[in-house]
Amino acid sequence: MRIRKKTNVFKFKDTHKRLKAKCKCGEVFRVELEFRRYYRNEVRLAGEYFFQEKDERGDILIEDISMTGIRFSSLKPHNISKDDSVELKFTLTNQRKTEIQRFTIKSQ
């Protein structure tokens, strides 16, 4: 059984606090709040990257995506470092099967 409780958390927006919550069963757990300008959607999309500077390409897995960012994992060892520009190419699962091809800066 899944029980949900809605509550206004706006007062915690700039506090970066972890909250404690208590389940109906008595179990206490921590909750971390994340405030975002755009919704981040978890996905599992196959794609590929091209690292022009080192003439390297490979397969990737898109893990999540939002209007301003994307998280992906390389499926093999790579030479991408922080702040490198890479080209990403993948297809959305929408009705039109939109193909996305963008340059991005890896920041983590």
Describe this structure in words.
It is built from no helices and 7 strands. The protein has about 110 residues and is an all-beta fold. The protein has a domain at about 40-105. The radius of gyration is 19 Å and the shape is elongated.
Number of strands: 7
**Order of the strands making up the biggest sheet:** 5-4-3-6-7
Low-pLDDT residue spans: none
- SSE order, one letter for each helix or strand: EEEEEEE
Instruction: Classify the beta-strand content into a percent band.
Output: over 45%
Tell me the Rg in angstroms. Answer: 19 Å
What is the tally of helical segments? Answer: 0
Terminal CA distance: 38 Å
**Largest sheet, strands/sense/barrel:** 5 strands, antiparallel
The assigned structural class equals: mainly beta
Q: Helical proportion?
A: under 10%
Assign an overall shape: elongated
Mean pLDDT: 84
